[in-house]
Fold this sequence. Notes:
There is one protein chain. The chain has a four-stranded antiparallel β-sheet with strand order 3-4-5-6, with no helix packed on it. A four-stranded antiparallel β-sheet has the order 7-8-9-10, with no helix packed on it. The protein has a two-stranded antiparallel sheet with strand order 1-2. The radius of gyration is 14 Å and the shape is globular. With 110 residues, it is mainly beta. It is 0% helix and 53% strand. It has strands at residues 2-3, 13-14, 20-28, 34-41, 48-53, 56-62, 71-78, 85-91, 94-100, 108-109. Strand 5 and strand 6 (56-62) form a beta hairpin. The chain is built from no helices and ten strands.
Amino acid sequence: LYLVDANAGGAATAVNAPNGTFASGPAFSADSRFLYWAARPNGSTGPTLWRAAVDAPSTPTRVSIEGSATNNVLFYRILPETGLIVLGRVDGGVSSIAVIDPATPGTERV
């Protein structure tokens, strides 16, 4: 996953979860200050939601709880009206919907 400033141009900056093996579903926050994506870091078997500030893309933050063999982020949406993140996950075969306030990454409300 790479980020390029469309206004200033220049070189592409790599953006990924630490030791990430794949990234999918990139999306910008409503205010375009953050880039979100799902990634499966090395050593993890389940996708996790990450974000990076557009002005500091090399320092990503995990937003959801960490994925595992039985706990996977299936999808996510950023609500433009509130900035809250709604995500769907499967945990041990049980599907659920969680809400994350971007002000408190890593804390999910089910």
